[in-house]
Each structure stands twice: as structure tokens, then as C-alpha cells.
Amino acid sequence: MRLEPADTAVVVVDMQNGFCHPDGSLYAPGSEAVIEPIADLLERARETGTQVIFTRDVHPPEQFDDAHYYDEFEQWGEHVLEGSWEAEIVDELPVDAADHVVEKHTYDAFYNTELEGWLNARNIDDLVICGTLANVCVLHTGGSAGLRDFRPIMLEDCIGAIEDGHREYALDHAAWLFGEVEPSDDLEFA
């Protein structure tokens, strides 16, 4: 698959210490396992000037105090609190000065963030999506991208999950409903 760097962004979803480091409160070995293939992907993308975007799932401690129904702390416990080590991107995936970082407070990187406007202002149409967790933030961000008429391309070998079945479900769902699923080796930025 050949992608034009000027029209493309690589979206790295939530590759944070809280999810990818063994000391993280929501550590999943499957998330740590995709650090290396994502690093390789970013190197290839940056060599061609393809935009890189990192999302960070960040929660103020009081975010869900007045929640009626949506309460991630009830579901997962307190995690990636604002200003914490857990909320930082893993050291193995350093953020470059040219990269864009989106802080989000839900599973969806488009919900109540500047991401859609930022992409539209740069005429970016194709989103190469990787990161973690497959059936949570990656799936919701990819689906939301498709609903906004971006082309979501989910990278099967660069998406972390708690269980392999979660990744398989998310990728099958994406391919069936809103996007494309490819191995990272099949991508060419040119």
C-alpha cells in the first residue's frame, strides 16, 4: 500500500507508561510488545516527512466525580492521572518536535479534542492507526475517524491488546465496518 506523505498521518494511540510499562496500573504485555514495530514504523514515516501524531489518555483526578454513567475509574480504577508518570509516552517512542500530541479524556481521540480540525487544516485524509488497546481506544478512534470521512488504516502488527482475541475482534470489526487492516511492512510512504 502506497501512501502520500503530505496526505497521511501516523496516529500512535496511548503508548503510555500506564499501559505499556510493567509498572503501569493497566499494563498489558501485548501493549509493550508493539513498541518495537511502532518505533520502526515511525522511523520510516519520519524519513519521508509523514506527520506523526501521539494521543495521550489523561484524566484529571476529579474527571468522573459528577458522572451519571460514563466513569472509566469505575471500569478500570484510577489510571493515567494528569501529570503522572503513567500518563507519559514510553521512553522508547520519543516525541519529536515536529510531532503533534493530542490529549484526550475518553476512548475516542476525536471526542472534545482539536484533532479533526488540526487534520483538516493540513489536508490530511489517510490515518495510519497503531497503539493500544485494540478493542478500546484504538477501535473507538479508528471508528470515529471513519465517521468523519478520514481513511483509517489499522496496522495489525502495531496494535496492542490485553488478549489476542481482543485484537482479532477489533481488527475484524474495523475491516468489516469502517477501515482497512494491513501489516506495517506493506506500507510505503512515497
Automatic annotation (TrEMBL):
Q: What UniProt keywords are attached to this protein's entry?
A: Hydrolase
Gene Ontology molecular functions: hydrolase activity
- Top-rank lineage group of the source organism: Archaea
Q: Which residues form the Isochorismatase-like domain?
A: 8-183
Which InterPro entries does its entry note?
Answer: Isochorismatase-like_dom (IPR000868), Isochorismatase-like_hydrls (IPR050272), Isochorismatase-like_sf (IPR036380)
Keyword Disulfide bond assigned? no
Short name of any one Pfam family annotated for the protein: Isochorismatase
Note the PANTHER family from the entry. Answer: ISOCHORISMATASE-LIKE DOMAIN-CONTAINING PROTEIN (PTHR43540:SF6), PEROXYUREIDOACRYLATE/UREIDOACRYLATE AMIDOHYDROLASE-RELATED (PTHR43540)
Q: What is this protein called?
A: Cysteine hydrolase family protein
* Species of origin: Natrinema soli
